[in-house]
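Hi D.,

Good news: the full-assembly prediction came through. Inputs first.
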Amino acid sequence: MAKRPTSADIARAAGVSKGAVSYALNGQPGVSEATRERILAIAAEMGFRPNLAARALNGASAGTIGLALCRPARVLGVEPFFMELISGIEAALAERSYGLTLQVVPDHAAEIAVYRRWSAERRVDGVLIVDLHRNDDRIDVIRELQLPAVVIAGPGDFGGLPQVWSDDAAAVTEAVEYLCALGHRTITRVGGMPELLHTEIRTRAFAEVCERLGVQHAVTVPADYTAEEGSRVTRRVLSAPGRPTALIYDNDLMAVAGLAVAQEMGIAVPGELSIVAWDDSMLCRIVHPPLTALSRDVPAYGTHAAHRLLELIATGTTTSLEDVAAHLVPRGSTATISSVRPD
Amino acid sequence: MAKRPTSADIARAAGVSKGAVSYALNGQPGVSEATRERILAIAAEMGFRPNLAARALNGASAGTIGLALCRPARVLGVEPFFMELISGIEAALAERSYGLTLQVVPDHAAEIAVYRRWSAERRVDGVLIVDLHRNDDRIDVIRELQLPAVVIAGPGDFGGLPQVWSDDAAAVTEAVEYLCALGHRTITRVGGMPELLHTEIRTRAFAEVCERLGVQHAVTVPADYTAEEGSRVTRRVLSAPGRPTALIYDNDLMAVAGLAVAQEMGIAVPGELSIVAWDDSMLCRIVHPPLTALSRDVPAYGTHAAHRLLELIATGTTTSLEDVAAHLVPRGSTATISSVRPD
DNA sequence: CTGAAAGCGCTTACAG
DNA sequence: CTGAAAGCGCTTACAG
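Then the structure:
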C-alpha cells in the first residue's frame, strides 16, 4: 500500500506551498478561488486526509468528546437509558464527524483521574457529565482543567457549567396526581441512589405532592436501579402489613422486576396494585400488562446535550436547556383502586 | 491555570535534554538509573503528561480502538448484547489506558467510510468488527487500509483476520436436543437477520440437528432482533394451524416479546409452549416464567476480543480464539410436552 | 551514558 | 494573493 499523502505531497503536485494547501483545505482566505479549487481537486484525487495528530499539535480540536460512565457494567448492559442516551449523542456527533470516547469507571475518583488524563493528553475536546451529586466533586476538577463540559442534570448550580435537564419534579407530580385521581391513597416509590441529584429532586417532589393531595402513606425506598434490588425491595414492600396500592419506580428495569414479584406473590396488577415506571423503554411494553410509564425521548435528550457541547467547544459559550419533561403514558398497569378493593 | 508543562520544561527543571526526558519516561535505555529516577520524580511533581498528539505524530499509537455498530439506535438502546460486549471491551482497554471510540452507522457503506476516515486520520490503532456477513465487503477495505482488526465472528475465513468466536452450532444443537428429550417434535426458530453469518450458522445447525432427531416441523422464521418483530412473528406462528410446541429465539429481546404474545393469546408457558432464548441477560430472569436460555459470558467475549486486538496492535500478530460456547440454562419456560398435551 | 539536531505533518504569522 | 519559515511537543537516530 502506498504511503498516505501529506500536505507536502499535495503542495508539490499542485505546485504551491504547504501553507496554500492548508488555507485551501480549511476554507481560509489566502488563496485565490481558482487555486483553491485546483488544490481541492488534487487533494481529493490523491485521497488526502489531514493527519489528525498534526492538527491537534497546532491546537486544533481532537474531534472527540468524552463520556465517563460510573455505573457497574452489569447495570449498563441491561438498563436502556444509557444506551439510548449514547445513541442520541452519536446522532449529534455524526453530523460533525465527531467521535465519542467512552470510559466506564468504578467511582468518582477514577472518573476524575480520567478527566485529568483526557485533558492532559488532549484526547477529548470536551465532556458530557451525568449522574450529578449534590456538591459534586467532579465539577471543581472540570473547572480547574478548563475542560468544556455540559452537565446532563438539573436544575441546579454546577459551578456555572451549562446544563441540559428536564423537570423531574413535574413528572413525578403528574404521576402521583394521576394515581390519586384513580383513588390511590397509599403510594410507595422505589427510588434510585439517594446521592444522585435527580433522585433527591424526585424524592422531594414526591413528598410534596403526596402531602398536598393527602396521600396517607407516601414512602420512598432507596434502591440502585438494578433488577435484583427492584425485586428485593418490592418483595419487602408488598410483604409488609398495610401494603401500598400503587408503586412508582425510578427506572423501568426495577419496575419490570417489581411486576414479576407482584405476579409471583399472586397480587393482581392492576387489580390490586398499580405500577408506574420511570423511563419508558421497550421493557415497559413487552411485559404483561404493559407498564404505565413516565416517558421521555432519551435519545433526543442526548442529542441536545451533545449539540450544546459542540457549540461550547466551537464558540466558547453555550446556553442551558430545559428539555421537555417526562409525561405520563397510561397503559395496563394502572387502574382505579375502588373497583377491586373498595375502602 | 498554569500552562501544562512540556517535556522541555521537565528537561530544563532536571537539567537534562528533552531526549533524556523521553527515554526516562518511556523506560528506554539511554539514561542512567539515577537520572531516570530524578526525571521521573520531577515529571510527577510538575504533573507532566505527554501530549498525545505529539506522540502520535511520531508514529506512536493513538491509544484508542474503534468500534462501529451497524444497528438501528432503537435496537442498541434495548438489546443488552452490545452494551454487555462494550462493558467487556472497556474492561480490557482500561488495563492499558486505552480508549474506545464508538460510532453508530446506518449501513456498511457508511461503516466503510468510517474505517477510511479513522485510518487516514490515525484516530484509532485498530478496530473490532462485528456482525459479519458472508463475503463481507468490509474485510477487503480493512485489509487495504492495513488497519489492525479482530473479527468477532466465526468460524470462517475473513481474509486472514484473527477472529474471536464461539460455537453457535453446538449451542443450538444442545437446545434442540434438550427440547427433543422433553418430547417436542415441532419446533420453530425465530432467527436473526439472514444475511448475518452467525444467523446462517445457527440456521444450518438447527436444520441438521432437527433432521437427525426427527423433528417433524423445523422451521426458521427470519426476524430482525427487535421486540416488535419478535411479537409479530410469534403471533403469526402461534396463530397458524399445527402450531409448534417449542420456540427458539435468536436473542433475548424477541424471546421476551414472544412470551408476552403467548400469554396474551392464552397459551400456557411452559404447559403448552416451551421457549428458549439466545443470550441470557437480566431480561430472561425478570419475566414470568423466567426463560430457559443459551447463556454465555458476553462481557468476557468482548474482553477476549479486545485483548487480542491490543496484542495485534502491540506486536503485529495475534491468534484467533474459540471462546466457550453458549450453554443451556434451563428455567421455567421449558417443560415436557407430554404432560399437558399427550400426543 | 548524555546532548544537540532533525523530523513527524500540519497551521499560522510574516514577508514579498 | 502567494511563498518561505517557524513552531506545536514529542521521538529517535546521530555524535560526543
